[in-house]
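R.M. (postdoc): so does anyone remember the format we settled on? I'll just put the C-alpha cells first.
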C-alpha cells in the first residue's frame, strides 16, 4: 500500500472512533447528568525519501468531555439536586471517590443519601450524609446545607478536580481522576431539580451523517486505490 492508502486508513480509524462517541451521545440524550463527548484529532507528518511528498498520519483516540451545563428540570423531589454552575457532587464507589453531575439521590436502609446505584453521596468533609428516619421535612439550601425538621445536619459537598484534563469517564455519568480533588464553592445547589444531559440530539445526528459521509468517501478511495494497484500489477505481469 502506498502513502495515500495509509493516510486514508488512519483517517478512517479516527472517524470510526468519532462515530462511536456520537452514537454514545445520542444514546444518553435523556440520561440525567450526562455530558457529551467529542473527539480530538491529531496529525503526524513525516518526511519520506528525497523528492517524495511527506506522509500524513491522523490519530483520533482522545475523547473530550463538553462541560457545558445541561438544562435543569424541576421534579419537586426532596432529594433531587442540581448544580447551577461548575462543580461536581462526590460519591463513594468501590473504585474510589468519583465525581458526578447526576443528582437524583435517595436515602438507603441506613438513612444515607445514595445514588440509584447505591453509592453514597459525600458531604463537604468526605463523610456520608444521614437523614433521620423520623424527619418530617428536609430542606437543602443553595450552599448545600441539609436541614431536617429545621435543624442543620450536614452540608452537601461540591468538588472540582485539581486538573480537569485528568478526568476519565466510567458508566456514563461518573468521573475519576488520578490527580487531586478539592472543594469548590462557586456554584449553587437547587433542591427539587435535576440536570438533564447537555446533548442536543439534532446536532449530534447531523454530525453523525457528516461523519458517515466522510467515512464512505474514504472507503471509496481505498477501493479505487486497490483497483488501481491491481491494474498496475496486472499490466506489469503481462
Amino acid at each position: 500500500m502506498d502513502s495515500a492508502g495509509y493516510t486514508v486508513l488512519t483517517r478512517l480509524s479516527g472517524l470510526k472512533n468519532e462515530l462511536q462517541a456520537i452514537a454514545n451521545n445520542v444514546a444518553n440524550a435523556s440520561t440525567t447528568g450526562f455530558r457529551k463527548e467529542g473527539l480530538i484529532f491529531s496529525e503526524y507528518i513525516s518526511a519520506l525519501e528525497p523528492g517524495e511528498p511527506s506522509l500524513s498520519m491522523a490519530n483520533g483516540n482522545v475523547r473530550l468531555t463538553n462541560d457545558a451545563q445541561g438544562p435543569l428540570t424541576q421534579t419537586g423531589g426532596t432529594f433531587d439536586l442540581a448544580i447551577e454552575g461548575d462543580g461536581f457532587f462526590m460519591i463513594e464507589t468501590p473504585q474510589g471517590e468519583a465525581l458526578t453531575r447526576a443528582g437524583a439521590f435517595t436515602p438507603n436502609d441506613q438513612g444515607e443519601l445514595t445514588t440509584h446505584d447505591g453509592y453514597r453521596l459525600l458531604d463537604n468533609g468526605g463523610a456520608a450524609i444521614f437523614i433521620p428516619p423520623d424527619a418530617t421535612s428536609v430542606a437543602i439550601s443553595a450552599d448545600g446545607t441539609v436541614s431536617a425538621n429545621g435543624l442543620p445536619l450536614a452540608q452537601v459537598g461540591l468538588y472540582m478536580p485539581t486538573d480537569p484534563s485528568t478526568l476519565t469517564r466510567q458508566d456514563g455519568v461518573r468521573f475519576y481522576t488520578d490527580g487531586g480533588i478539592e472543594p469548590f464553592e462557586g456554584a449553587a445547589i437547587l433542591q427539587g431539580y435535576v440536570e438533564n444531559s447537555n446533548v442536543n440530539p439534532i446536532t449530534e445526528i447531523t454530525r453523525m451523517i457528516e461523519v458517515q459521509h466522510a467515512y464512505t468517501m474514504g472507503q471509496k478511495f481505498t477501493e479505487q486505490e486497490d483497483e488501481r494497484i491491481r491494474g498496475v500489477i496486472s499490466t506489469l505481469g503481462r
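R.M.: ...and that's the designed sequence above, right after the C-alpha cells. Also worth knowing: The CA atoms of residues 136 and 149 lie 6 Å apart. The longest helix spans residues 201-237.
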